[in-house]
Amino acid sequence: HSFLNRLYRGTNKDCIEQLRLSKNAFFNLCRILQEKGGLVRTRNVPTTEAVAMFLHILAHNLKYRVVQFSYCRSKETISRQFNDVLRAVMKVSKEYLNFQPCTLEGAEANKWRWFERCIGALDETHILVTVSPDERPRYRNRKGDVSTNVLAACGPDLRFIYVLPGWEGSAGDSRVLRDALRRQNKLEIPTGKYFLVDAGYTNGPGFLAPYRGTRYHLNEWIGNTPQSYKELFNLRHASARNAIERSFGILKKRWSILRTPSFFDIKTQIRIINACFVLHNFIRDEQQTDQLLEVQDLEFLSVVDEELVHQSREEVQNNVIDDITTIQATEEWTRFRDTLAMNMFANY
């Protein structure tokens, strides 16, 4: 197969550009999906080709007819193979979407050193979807886009720990979080541990929020130094919590299918979103020895940070804060934040 042969014989850079994985990572993924995901080669299509088609579609948001031309396969074959690979990725998802201890070095370690019992950062992001006309009102978010509201948490290493896609764009963050804390596949927060969250969330057990009414977003600090314990806490909180924004940024830059509504039915779109999170973690795990993928992350981040600055500035100007009432504030937790903030300031 000429396209695949060019990919296999080409450089790692070519493979990353086309499939978002290095050659080594690609063959590892094929093996895992066969051994653990139950992916079986069909008489005419080897698993490597099926996985390549799947990644190609996710990476570049390609229509089947475009893939048909590159791979010389019928639309029916492509559709069947795509769904087989998607099923296999979903089957291994629990192995990849979980908490794993990580070791940080240098500046990254410094960002998190004050938040000892913290397991990561949590936030929600909207991903555009296509739904039937009668469902559009439910999926329309406050910006007027038709989207699904996705709740996710990531660790300091930018690996996702938990993902809940599927809620309609009109669903408030409070409802989505409440569902995440109660559903069968629920967000688990070990006692005494917590996530960093933004000012829309209540500061309560398991969720450490910044002080409201005090400068917070990173771009607000340019050329300024903290003048109080609340300001210093908010600055350090924002620097660490930025991990979730960076993770979302890398995810959406890597998988084009997440940036525009796709032609799949809504159930499949939700599963595709889930698969992109799984693949994000797979790549981060493989990346420990993969410099090219590391370079790609840095490229994604350099673009993302500028976008985030504009996005956060817009939110500050419009004062967009969702009140999330799912979390109950307690005096003990308020004291915990104050003590932490005052200790930071005393050592500043």
Automatic annotation (TrEMBL):
Cellular component per GO, a single term: nucleus
TM annotation in the entry: none
Cellular compartments annotated: Nucleus
UniProt-listed Pfam families: DDE_Tnp_4, DUF8040
Every DUF8040 domain range: 2-91
Occurrences of domain DDE Tnp4 (ranges): 123-281
Keywords: Hydrolase, Metal-binding, Nuclease, Nucleus
A single GO molecular function term of this UniProt record: nuclease activity
First-listed, main subcellular location of the protein, grouped into a coarse class: nucleus
InterPro entries listed in its UniProt record: DUF8040 (IPR058353), HARBI1-like (IPR045249), HARBI1_dom (IPR027806)
Cofactor: a divalent metal cation
Family named by the database record: Belongs to the HARBI1 family.
Record PANTHER family: NUCLEASE, PTHR22930
Protein name: Putative nuclease HARBI1
